[in-house]
Amino acid sequence: PGSMEAAADEEKAGNGHAEGPAAAERSGGGRLRGCRGFLRRNALVVLTVSGVVAGVALGAAVRGAQLSPAQVAYLAFPGELLLRMLRMVILPLVVCSLVSGAASLDTRSLGRLGGIALAYFLGTTLLASGLAIALGFIVRPGAGASALNAPGLGLPSAVHTSKETVDSFLDLKYFIFLFVFYRNLFPANLVAAAFQTYATEYKMLLRNTTSGNVTWEKIPVGTEIEGMNILGLVLFALVLGVALKKLDQEGEDLIRFFNSFNEATMVLVSWIMWYVPIGIMFLVGSKIVEMEDIVLLVTSLGKYIFASILGHFIHGGIILPLIYFASTRQNPYRFLLGLITPLATAFATCSSSATLPSMIKCIEENNGVDKRISRFILPIGATVNMDGAAIFQCMAAVFIAQLNNVDLNPGQIFTILVTATASSVGAAGVPAGGVLTIAIILEAIGLPTNDLSLILAVDWIVDRTTTVVNVEGDALGAGILNYLNEKEQKEKEQELKEVNVEAVANSKSEGETSPLVTHKNQVSNTSSTADPESKESVL
């Protein structure tokens, strides 16, 4: 027996030695399969981030080659194709998504969600403006700024504007009160609104007075400039969706048409998304090559760049996630983790409108936001919610004031807050769309607009974090509205369950004898004593 036990122990030991490498191989294979699965699920995210890194490396490597302007244009061509493809789907995506979203929501839910979204957009924009002004007084980016007119900076010429402040407000594509009508809110030609927007310019007209003196009079002239009137299209799509909802059966066919059109557009977006890493790489690389002297630019305007990016980091990394957590009691960073691809697209393209297709796709597929919410809120947010632009514009106003040794009084600070909140809504969702709106703020507080050339010099840097914060605010707002909508639906279902329970209890108390109202214990007793045919009759 002793020898048999020893042999058995030796056999177990041998099996253990034999199973050791096999177990290690199985665990290694499991880790490899897990890594492959992660890469398969997040391939687009990994490729997009790799495209940004590769673009920086490409731009740094090619800068020393002294490319001609034509060669730089060739380098940026793949990125230009990406921007063109994204802008191509903006119009059908915005119109169809808003029509289908408004038609799928009842009037009460539409008004409630719209009111919450408007309060969220205005509140976060005011917080962003206040944060930027506070950081401007703390960091003081314009104090002691020197070498700003050095020849190596490659600054553009001064920006001239012929708009008056009042007409700039009238031309803004936003509305705060329902009784205020703005020009771009109601386009005269719906087809022209797809590629033109209204603007007011001033012309000097020579007039002869009765006394023989010659005077120049400034006359306002309305004109159509190139650019999509997105807010006019948004308003039309919303009203059309509500009208189709009111038609009931007669509007079902047209609603199904817009739903199908919207789904087909999302399929196109999913195809375009696989080209995003390539386009981003060449966009970032070409922008780095275009700058003449980055070192001198950063050292001269470094405090302004630092203060702007710091404001974007605090607002986008702390304040907005806190608002999301306070509203939903959910982890905001896990929510943002599913939006890496649209955030990287925003960083590369500097366009909220161009990021809209990928944002809608990722927020629905990765974060499970209801299509009715995302396709209703995100197009509106891409137009009217510009938290990053508000920070950028307030910081620029404080910077220019300090550069000109102007001490801002409380009245001017309040004017900057209100004007920046309004003009950030009117900023176009395209690269450098918010620069010209800074002129409105400068005119409102009496500062010269010639220093806007300094802002243009670093806009390509600051505009990237500006766009990221803009689209992040839209996405978190959609997440909050989706949570509130789901909560309301659960409360309605709970109320229905309570009504059903009360109805059953009332029927028991009244002792109804109808065969359609059979109590559970009666069914069980009958089924236990009766034959199968009687069981079927009871059921």
From TrEMBL:
<keyword id="KW-0813">Transport</keyword>
<keyword id="KW-0769">Symport</keyword>
<dbReference type="GO" id="GO:0015194">
    <property type="term" value="F:L-serine transmembrane transporter activity"/>
</dbReference>
<dbReference type="Pfam" id="PF00375">
    <property type="entry name" value="SDF"/>
</dbReference>
<feature type="transmembrane region" description="Helical">
    <location>
        <begin position="264"/>
        <end position="284"/>
    </location>
</feature>
<feature type="transmembrane region" description="Helical">
    <location>
        <begin position="85"/>
        <end position="105"/>
    </location>
</feature>
<feature type="transmembrane region" description="Helical">
    <location>
        <begin position="333"/>
        <end position="356"/>
    </location>
</feature>
<keyword id="KW-0472">Membrane</keyword>
<feature type="region of interest" description="Disordered">
    <location>
        <begin position="1"/>
        <end position="29"/>
    </location>
</feature>
<dbReference type="GO" id="GO:0015813">
    <property type="term" value="P:L-glutamate transmembrane transport"/>
</dbReference>
<feature type="compositionally biased region" description="Polar residues">
    <location>
        <begin position="515"/>
        <end position="531"/>
    </location>
</feature>
<dbReference type="GO" id="GO:0015183">
    <property type="term" value="F:L-aspartate transmembrane transporter activity"/>
</dbReference>
<feature type="transmembrane region" description="Helical">
    <location>
        <begin position="304"/>
        <end position="327"/>
    </location>
</feature>
<dbReference type="InterPro" id="IPR001991">
    <property type="entry name" value="Na-dicarboxylate_symporter"/>
</dbReference>
<comment type="similarity">
    <text>Belongs to the dicarboxylate/amino acid:cation symporter (DAACS) (TC 2.A.23) family.</text>
</comment>
<feature type="region of interest" description="Disordered">
    <location>
        <begin position="494"/>
        <end position="539"/>
    </location>
</feature>
<dbReference type="InterPro" id="IPR036458">
    <property type="entry name" value="Na:dicarbo_symporter_sf"/>
</dbReference>
<feature type="transmembrane region" description="Helical">
    <location>
        <begin position="174"/>
        <end position="195"/>
    </location>
</feature>
<feature type="transmembrane region" description="Helical">
    <location>
        <begin position="43"/>
        <end position="65"/>
    </location>
</feature>
<keyword id="KW-0812">Transmembrane</keyword>
<feature type="transmembrane region" description="Helical">
    <location>
        <begin position="117"/>
        <end position="139"/>
    </location>
</feature>
<dbReference type="GO" id="GO:0005886">
    <property type="term" value="C:plasma membrane"/>
</dbReference>
<dbReference type="GO" id="GO:0015180">
    <property type="term" value="F:L-alanine transmembrane transporter activity"/>
</dbReference>
<protein>
    <recommendedName>
        <fullName>Amino acid transporter</fullName>
    </recommendedName>
</protein>
<dbReference type="GO" id="GO:0015293">
    <property type="term" value="F:symporter activity"/>
</dbReference>
<dbReference type="InterPro" id="IPR050746">
    <property type="entry name" value="DAACS"/>
</dbReference>
<dbReference type="InterPro" id="IPR018107">
    <property type="entry name" value="Na-dicarboxylate_symporter_CS"/>
</dbReference>
<dbReference type="GO" id="GO:0015195">
    <property type="term" value="F:L-threonine transmembrane transporter activity"/>
</dbReference>
<keyword id="KW-1133">Transmembrane helix</keyword>
<keyword id="KW-0325">Glycoprotein</keyword>
